[in-house]
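step: validate -> pass
step: tokenize input -> pass
step: predict -> running
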Amino acid sequence: MTSPDRLPRLTLVLGGARSGKSRYAEQLITGTAPPWVYIATAEALDEEMRERIQHHRDRRDDDWRTVDAPRDLAGAIAGADAGQPILIDCLTLWLSNTLLAEADVAAACDGVIGALSQARGPIVAVSNEVGFGLVPETPLGRRFRDAQGRLNQQVAAVADRVVLVAAGLPLTLK
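step: predict -> pass
step: emit ->
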């Protein structure tokens, strides 16, 4: 675990579903002084997603301020107080929301990369590594997988540290 005074400006935490990436990212942020900002990108469109969101909220105490940003992630990053620790959970849901809204994905990703590059941090961004699985059967699935891979590469390029979490274990890539 990184000591509180050594959390980089931008950390990307990657992993598969239920890999422990969100819990690991929360631990990184809570190793710094509160208050902390949690930028949530999920939308509670069904009961199962409401339960997932509630599970994440139950892990956070009053030292967290939640900012809902299912679409305007760049604005949420830019609008955060300079120097206040931020957790973005997660880039994958934000990208899915952007694709389903039929927005300009490349422009939206460029906006997020720009906001991350300009932010003072510390920021910990969580994202799924979706390239380890099978090739999706549908054009939308393939488009999403490709866009997610590109976004992860772009964020990794501007990140100070990149960590892959598998089975709850972090492996530092950068």
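step: describe -> The chain has six helices and seven strands.
step: cleanup -> pass
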